Structures are given as C-alpha cells and as structure tokens.
Amino acid sequence: MTETSHAVIVLAAGAGTRMKSKTQKTLHAIGGRTLLSHSLHAADALHPSRIVAVVGHGRDQVGPAAETIGEELDAELAIAVQEEQNGTGDAVAAGMTQLEDFEGTVIVTNADVPLLTGDTLTELLAAHTEVPTAVTVLTMRLPDPFGYGRIIRNEQGEVTHITEQKDATDAEREVDEVNSGVFAFDAGVLRDALTRLNTDNKQGELYITDVLGIARDAGRPVRAHIADDARELAGVNDRVQLAAAGAELNRRTVEAAMRGGATVVDPGTTWIDVEVQVGQDVTILPGVQLKGRTTLADDVTVGPDSTLVDVTVGEGASVVRAHAVEAVIGARADVGPFTYLRPGTVLGEESKLGGFVESKNATIGKGSKVPHLSYIGDATVGEYSNIGASSVFVNYDGVNKHHTTVGSHVRTGSDTMFIAPVTVGDGVYSGAGTVIKDDVPAGALVVSGGHQRNIEGWVERKRPGTPAAEAAKNARESAD
Ligand code: UD1
Ligand code: CA
C-alpha cells in the first residue's frame, strides 16, 4: 500500500432483492458502466492509497467484475468478503480487514449510488480533514426522506446520531436531512466503534450508522457535510430508481457535451455513455445513442436515429440513420441512411457507405464508395473505387469465410458478385450482373454469363390463362 492518508471502502455485498434479477444489483449498468464501476471510478478519483470492495451476496459475479474494473483504476484494489450480510456495519468491518495497519481517513461509500462524483468525495474529505473530526457523514435534504436514515441533531444543531427509517419515532421521521450512506471516518475511531456495534434494532443488523452515536458518546467530534446536489446521492434499489439514475446521469453527460461545444438538437432522445468523447461543433440530431468508447471528432454530424457502439468517427464525417458497432469512420466520410456497420469496418477518408448497405470486417479506402443496397464483408477495397448497386461480397462458402481484395479506381457494374477468395486489380471495370469467380487483372473489363436469349411466345404457350399470358396476347394483337 502506498502512503497516502486516505483509503476507500465500497460496500457491494448486499442482496439487492428489490431488483428482482439474476444479475447482482451493482452489476446493472447505466451510462455504459455498471453501478459498481461508477462507484469504484469515483473512489479512484480521490487518489486513495487503497480501495477495498466488499463483496458477499452474488460474489461469484461481483468479485471477478470488481477485479476487472480494478485493472482500469490508478489505485490498488483489494477485495474483502463479507460472509453473511449482517448489515452495513458488518460490511465495513469486513472491509477493514484489508486495512489492518492503515491510519488516516477511511471513506465509506455504497456501490448502489452511481451518480456520486469524485468531486463530491473530494469535498467530503476536505470538510473532514479541515478541522479535527472523528466522523463526517455526507447528508442531503430531501422533500421525501422516506426510507433513508435520518440525521438527528441536538438543540445546538450538532449531529448526535442517525436513526434508520424503521427505528425512527414519528418526530424523527419528520426530519428531512438524511444519511447518503457516504462517510469519512478516522480509522482508529472506526476500528474501535465497530467492536461496539450491536443488533438492537428493528432489522437485527449491525448498522454502520451507529458509529456516529458511539463516537460522539466517547467525546469525539462528529459532523455532517450537506451535499449541494441531492440528485447525485440517489441510491438505486429497484429498476425504477435504476432508470431514474440512468436518465439523470445521461442528462449530465449530454449537458457536458453541449458545454464542450456540441449541438444536441434533442437532449431528451440523445443517450451518451460516460466514456464517449464528443468534439467541438459536432451536431447530434434526435434519436442518437453513443455507446461504449465511441469518439466523435470535431464537425461530425450524427443522426437522426443512429446507434454507435465503440465507433471512432473522423472529423467532418456524416452518419445518418445508421447502426454501427466496433467500426472506424474516416474524416469526411458519408454513411447512411439505413446503413449497418458491423465490427471491423474501416472506412477511409471521404469514402461512402450508402443506403441499405451492410459491412463487416471490411476496409474501404479513401474516396471509395459503396452507395446502394450491398453487402461488403471480409474485404479490402483500394482508393477511389465504386462498387455498383446491389453487389454482394460472397464471403461464405457454407464452411469458411474468405477474403476479397479490390484495387483502386475500380468501377463495378450493378449486381456484381465477388465470389471470395478473389482479387480484382486496379482500374478494373465489370459489367452489370457479373459473377466474379476468378481473379481479374488490372485494367480488364470482366463480364460473365452467356448472351441474352429471348424465347418468343413462351408465356402464351407455357402459361396460358394467366394475367401475364393475357397481357402478352393483348400486346401481340395490338402490334398486329
Ligand atoms: C443505508 C443506511 C441509511 C442510508 C441509506 C442511503 C444503514 C443501516 N442504513 O440504508 O442510513 O440513508 O443507506 O442509501 O447503513 N451492504 C453490504 N452488506 C450488508 C448490507 C448492506 O455490503 O450486509 C451494502 C449494500 O450492498 C449497499 C449498501 O451496503 O451497497 C447499503 O445497503 P442497503 O441495504 O441498500 O441500505 P439502505 O437500507 O439503503
Ligand atoms: Ca440502498
């Protein structure tokens, strides 16, 4: 453990039964990160000497998830196991087993408070260390405090203790200042108080909240730090609160993009994950979802109605009504409308992927175009080539996938089939309806299929009585 004077314990051992889910509560996601990940990233922003994640219920899911998130963090992450979920006090005690020799400030947060920011934790830590304090609880005032622990103060306005909803008297339930579940503790005071907790309460659990009363009774100073923005401290206990937290997080993320110089025409239908980067003078039209590690360079236009997942979009590109996953769209490229970019699509500068085109594992060079109704998979296309409408890169023989290589300045006719593996040289032309099975040398015109044959009178002879035969008869008679 490196020597800084504060550590963080993140509680993530609770059952989360109100989610009614196979997935552990803290592994539900908003803004592209799990609740657990949000809480660990907020803790990391404090630059603590160590972060301890306390896992218990569903720990076969939560433990490995925490380890994976730990790899993205600057701070060292330790996992503590709370064997039985005997309450938040017991959970903090489990966390302290990973901080045995630690002296300084222990910050405790909950993994189910995803909007809590590193800035707010930093303010709490500053408030706690400004004057000698044994415990500082982060509180908020709520119009409807139901369900939360109430902050009880004496006539001098000093915090004396916290009373849980279920244990509160009618008078205490009137109190609108509540416990956010986030605390700063002096490590020594916390260690001592944890040995004094008891289960004499309605839930029969060890409450971390009781540490305040114990510390104060021992003559140690206990204070509250009231958060400016209660919405940041909203806990997620069920799916209704999950959606509300997701909407609030998104509102903040979209607002940050606008403050950074992006135009968002309809913030209400724009969803941006927290790790997405949005450049200046980007325009986002209604119905856009930017997910994962998507990056939009300056002057990009996206939308309406587009979803980009882990997509990199170059400067000045335009993406209209597209669905793209793990793709790269080059500067000033033109995508859409109604275009599906699957993983491994790499579009060069000023290239185009037009309407009803699907691509996968395809590199399309600078200025090349696939404008209409085509499938381009497992392919490399050079620069300034044009793939005619309704073409298919036939990459799959039923067993294996094969690659097609098309050179630069190629002009293929409509309905060209590229039967992979095949290579088409630079400057090649193909006739409409060509089936390219063999390599085509540079500069050739390739055509396939025999000459057209018209078998006169076939419809009237072979399909008598049909509307087509009737039309054919009428045409013949009026020509006679
Ligand atoms: C808790 C607080 C309450 C506060 C509220 C804020 C207590 C007794 N009550 O109530 O004062 O207003 O948070 O949201 O602390 N957990 C464990 N192990 C356990 C029990 C819980 O790790 O044995 C974890 C949960 O995963 C969760 C956190 O502790 O992250 C809070 O537990 P929860 O049951 O949600 O507490 P609340 O009833 O919300
Ligand atoms: Ca809770």
TrEMBL record:
Residues 261-480 are annotated as: N-acetyltransferase. This is Bifunctional protein GlmU. Residues 1-239 are annotated as: Pyrophosphorylase. Residues 8-274 form the Nucleotidyl transferase domain. Its EC number is 2.7.7.23, 2.3.1.157. GO terms for molecular function: glucosamine-1-phosphate N-acetyltransferase activity; magnesium ion binding; UDP-N-acetylglucosamine diphosphorylase activity. In the N-terminal section; belongs to the N-acetylglucosamine-1-phosphate uridyltransferase family. Keywords: Acyltransferase, Cell shape, Cell wall biogenesis/degradation, Cytoplasm, Magnesium, Metal-binding, Multifunctional enzyme, Nucleotidyltransferase, Peptidoglycan synthesis, Repeat, Transferase. It comes from the Bacteria. Pfam families: NTP_transferase. Catalyzes the last two sequential reactions in the de novo biosynthetic pathway for UDP-N-acetylglucosamine (UDP-GlcNAc). The C-terminal domain catalyzes the transfer of acetyl group from acetyl coenzyme A to glucosamine-1-phosphate (GlcN-1-P) to produce N-acetylglucosamine-1-phosphate (GlcNAc-1-P), which is converted into UDP-GlcNAc by the transfer of uridine 5-monophosphate (from uridine 5-triphosphate), a reaction catalyzed by the N-terminal domain.
